[in-house]
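Hi V.,

You were right to ask for the full record rather than a summary. Here it is.
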Amino acid sequence: MKAIGDQRAAAGPATPDHQARMRYAWRVCSVTSLGLILIGVAGSTLNVALPSVVRHFHASAMESGWILLSFLLVNTASLVFFGRVADLVGRREVYLTGLALFTAASLLAGLAPDVWFLVGMRVVQAVGAAMVLANGTVILTDAFPPERLSQGMGVYIGTLSVAQLAGPTLGGLIAETAGWQWIFWVNVPAGLAALTWGAMTLRRMPRGPRRPVDALGNALLFAALSALLLALSEAGSAGLSSPAVIGGAAVFVVLVPVTVLVERRAASPVLDLRLLGGRLLTCANLASFCNALARSALILIAALYFQAVRGLDAFDAGLSVLPLPVGMALASPAAGLLGRRVSSYALSVGGALLSAAGLGVLMLAIDPAAPYWIIGLGLLVAGCGSGAFMTGNTTEVMRAVPQSSLGVVNGLRMMIMNVGIVISVGLSLSVLTSSVDEHLRAQVSAGTLSALSPVAVGQLTQGFGRTYAVLLAVALAGLALAALARAPKEPR
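Predicted structure:
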């Protein structure tokens, strides 16, 4: 009770200045939430509609993987870079430019004449998304008073859940009725609306300290992640003995120590691990990495399961995966409200525990004869866990750093989380496709395997079980790290 009273006292009286700040803070929250919805819907619709795109272009397993991975790779490698650029030219300006770039690339993606032009437009989308994601959380954190930040963060992260809630159904419906092009074109009016409202609402923010851009560090990071993704994507389709797998893994192993050495000497490193000083920031960010790795491929994997194993069309598959984003949509704002009474540490640990429990249920319910309600329960529990974890973890990290370091630390936080997202998709697809014969692997991404061979469906079902087992192991590691991220007690 004393803690609750202290929090209320810290909020201070509802003065006119405080009320004006809160009105502006909630308008900022609406702007940043629109940006998150735009990017979240774009990703979740494509996850469900990917088989339609693959069938249209007759894409190979590698090409279909890179439709997803190209976006994740470039987005991850660009996050800290655009956090630094925003220090030079302004967060408002970079954020709005990112919205414009993402919208324009979405228009051109729908006009793609071949699969590699589409991949190119996904790269441009990724640059725009990095501009938005690298600055949205910082803009929101700056707008809210510290004692109300968990509420704003809960709504902000909850909008990503809403995007993932609408995305699968929308993606399936569009793919079955209007055609795959509209998966991208639907972003255009939404992007223009977000850009207009952002330009009207956001105020200019003080620019951060002018630091040199670490071009060499960015290049090394991009090359290392590219090599890792090449090895992961080819391992599932070509086998571990493939020259691409061996070469990609070798390049990654060589570049990691080189990157660490270069970054230690850089004046303003893109990967400044010194910012993670202390157990709380180190463990909290590593827990975020594990949660992203365990969470991010779930909608894609579940949608492929319903199409490739159970023979559903894209629309029905989209409906079937809805419990996952529903759980996130319910848990994120609820965790934000609880954040005034429950510590962000408790929310983070509790969310990580629920995420692992949901994956455990999914791993046990892969049999095609298993009733849907068990799968739906697993998806719902995993979604609730991820929503609570992300709200608690983000608040925990952002409260632990001084105001002057918010931009750089947030960029590093997002990059670490996005590396988990990148590896999640690449690793999950690799483990999954390795379970079937080589000549059938393209049918997995196309969602047509269920109509070809009962034997292959059995192999693929085992592949889903192995995939969920790998993700569960990662989620348990994330739970342990979240538990270790407790702030040290202050001396009395």
